Amino acid sequence: MKQLLLIILMALCLSSCKSKKKYTASKTSTKIINVTTTNKPTKEANAIVKYAKSFNGTRYKYGGTTKRGMDCSGLIYTSFKQHEIDLPRTTSDLKSAGDWIDLKEVNVGDLVFFATKKNSRKVNHVGIVTEVRTGNVEFIHASSSKGVMVSSLAERYWYFAFVQARRVL
């Protein structure tokens, strides 16, 4: 009888050790981005963004620049080229084009750069700012998993991957 009681007591102790709560990080964050831009976007910037949005839903294709498939720098290259603005074709060349600007000063048409590889701050992704509101900056880009889409810097993933913004207009 003592052995049975001892086994039951041990089983209760062991099962109670497994009752840890699991916490998962949310996909989005409530991070507030302090944007101070008061300038209205130019007609040219709005036209570039409108053209870039016409690719929304286009599948990802490394090196692509058409509706059949495109990558992140291909979206930037094609959108600006449509408006007779020549920019470099690759993200590594784009990261030094134009002028560096503080995130607080971004406006529609500016480029935002990200480091998406784990434990790296090397820029490997780019997007075009589509909308700026207090506490939020939205941008269009070509995601390797979901194709061309609009995302927000308020999302935890993009907030922590952000590296720099540049003005090319």
User: Tell me about the biggest sheet?
Assistant: 6 strands, antiparallel
The helix-strand sequence is HHEEHHEEEEEHE
Ranges where pLDDT stays below 50 over 5 or more residues in a row are: 14-27
Strand order of the largest sheet: 3-8-4-5-6-7
β-strand number:
8
Q: What does the overall shape look like?
A: elongated
Helix content: 25-40%
Calculate the mean pLDDT score and round it: 86
Task: State the distance separating the first and last CA atoms.
Answer: 84 Å
CA radius of gyration: 23 Å
| Main structural class | alpha+beta
How much of the sequence lies in strands comes to 15-25%
Number of helices: 5
Oligomer state equals single chain
Describe the structure.
α2 (43-53) packs across α3. The strands form two sheets. The protein has a six-stranded antiparallel β-sheet with strand order 3-8-4-5-6-7. Strands 1-2 form a two-stranded antiparallel sheet. It starts with a helix and ends with a strand. A hairpin with a 3-residue loop joins β6 (136-143) and β7. The protein has 169 residues and is of the alpha+beta class. It has five helices and eight strands, in the order ααββααβββββαβ. It is elongated and about 90 Å long. 28% of the residues are buried. The longest helix is centred in the N-terminal third of the chain and has 16 residues, at 2-17. 28% of the residues lie in helices and 24% in strands. Mean pLDDT is 86; it is low at 14-27.
